[in-house]
Automatic annotation (TrEMBL):
Lineage of origin: Eukaryota, Viridiplantae, Streptophyta, Embryophyta, Tracheophyta
One Pfam family from the record: Myb_DNA-bind_3
Domain of life: Eukaryota
Domain Myb/SANT-like residue range list: 4-98
Protein name as annotated: Myb/SANT-like domain-containing protein
Length: 286
């Protein structure tokens, strides 16, 4: 049968996908075959619709694509307005005309943002892109020093030499000792520098990178203090989200995600409580 993915069915399947991800059944970019079997079984119990694994995999891939597009749209939103009610960018037709060229597929979010965003974040957040060697400030994680050092060392500069192959000098009549030298530097400009010289240069580069990396981490964590979960939760209480309330509960879920904390902090104190109420209503239907 043809898969019917209306708003409600999509919400249900994302919740089932999340259940499998949290159970550790997504070893790479997709769920395991048994996990898809379980999703299909539970989906049938809830909706009465029976879908095969290929249909569920196709839906997974489509959702991953939409999530990736919406993330790019959020990054492009910098400096633009944000419609909290519709969870999307608040801009004129000209802005969207350019955006749909820069980000193919984003125009579908002009009237309403990505649905089930929190579920999709859990499903795809660490597999939508590979930024292990590049630091995007929005990722919240600085690059490792190891990655920086690996990219800095040019191994092609190091000529293969046998360090055990020594150069012997003619024995001196004063001392019979044989002098040996390792890592001899060649001054001929037509030849590559030997190991000792190149390694000294690379060690200097590594030292500079370590200093920069340490500075980056200090700067990052200093900045992160103002938007940490604990500090933003403290900001939620004065606006009316007292402990034990629905608003305080939804805040504890939302503020796990950095971008949600930043959205909350960007709002005026008068609108924050209403925003939390709507977030709770959207997720739990109360």
């Amino acid at each position: 049968m043809v898969a019917e993915w209306n708003i409600e069915n999509t919400r249900i399947v994302t919740e089932l996908f999340v259940k499998q991800v949290r159970a550790g059944n997504r070893p790479n970019t997709h769920l395991t075959s048994n996990a898809y079997d379980e999703v299909g079984r539970e989906f049938k119990l809830i909706t009465g619709l029976e879908y095969i694994n290929d249909q569920l995999k196709n839906k997974w891939d489509k959702l991953r694509g939409e999530y990736s597009i919406f993330k790019k749209l959020k990054l492009k939103e910098t400096g633009a307005g944000w419609d909290i009610e519709r969870n999307t960018v608040k801009q004129d037709a000209e802005w969207w005309k350019k955006a749909k060229i820069d980000i193919p597929g984003c125009y579908k979010f002009r009237k309403h943002g990505l649905r089930n965003e929190e579920n999709l974040r859990i499903m795809f957040e660490d597999i939508t892109s590979d930024g292990s060697d590049h630091w995007n400030p929005t990722s919240g994680i600085p690059p490792t020093s190891t990655a920086l050092i690996s990219s800095a060392i040019n191994l092609e500069q190091i000529e293969d030499v046998d360090l055990l192959e020594d150069t012997q000098e003619t024995p001196s009549p004063v001392t019979p000792k044989v002098n040996k030298r390792l890592g001899k530097i060649i001054c001929d400009t037509n030849k590559k520098p030997k190991t000792a010289q190149v390694m000294q240069e690379q060690i200097t580069v590594i030292g500079d990178i370590c200093k920069e990396s340490h500075s980056t981490f200090q700067s990052f964590f200093k900045h992160d203090d103002t938007t940490s979960v604990a500090s933003v939760m403290k900001e939620a209480i004065p606006c009316g989200a007292i402990e034990g309330s629905d608003e305080h509960f939804i805040a504890t879920e939302l503020f796990i995600k950095r971008e949600q904390r930043e959205i909350f902090l960007s709002m005026s104190a008068e609108t924050r409580l209403g925003w939390l109420k709507r977030k709770f209503s959207v997720k739990y239907g109360n």
